[in-house]
Amino acid sequence: MSREKRRKLITAIIRDHPISTQAELVTELSKHGVSVTQATLSRDMRELGLAKFRNKDGIFYAIYNQQQNTSNFTTVYRQFILSVDSVMFMIVCHTRLGEAALLANEFDTAKRPEVLGTIAGADTLLLVCESVKSADSLFGEICDAVK
Fold first, then answer.
1. Where are the domains of the chain?
2. CB under 8 Å to 51, separation ≥6 — which residues?
3. String of b and e for 56-74 (b: at least 16 CB within 10 Å)?
4. What is the CATH number of domain 3-63?
5. 35-57 confidence digits (pLDDT tens)
6. Residue 36 CB neighbours (<10 A)
7. Which of 82, 121, 127, 147 is the most buried (most CB within 10 A)?
8. What mean pLDDT is predicted for residues 52-69?
9. How far from the centroid of its chain's Cα atoms is residue 95's Cα?
10. Class of the 68-146 domain?
11. Would you state the torsion angle of the CA atoms of residues 102, 105, 109, 112, taken in this order, to the nearest 10 degrees?
12. Taking Cα atoms as reference points, which of 29, 27, 23 lies closest to residue 9?
């Protein structure tokens, strides 16, 4: 199966089935006769813009609209951030266990110019900003969203 067809199938599966792990996605793909390596699946998922989202029923993969991502992070902040602190040019975001890396991926994918890099632990994300001014601005944006 071509890469384009495999990615269309992945998109259809994610749209039609609640998928919460890569293993579940591999199982669904195999039902359609598609065998894929973990590395290929991870690359496909990243390039398709798949991200895990939480709702009342649990955590599931969905396709994230990256244009929305770069212009309005409010939904992302509300979904992942429990609390936030700032010191000079760094911002520390506290999340639920296992969600810091998901939040880091949102910042990394968006390539926001004020964020030089991210470091994620199990439930803590460190954002390193380009300046104190940009950190203050981003901190204010996050605080406004998670109130």
1. 3-63, 68-146
2. 61, 62, 63, 64, 102, 105, 106
3. eeeebbeebeeeebeeebe
4. 1.10.10.10
5. 999 899 988 988 887 777 766 67
6. 18
7. 127
8. 63
9. 13
10. alpha beta
11. 100
12. 29
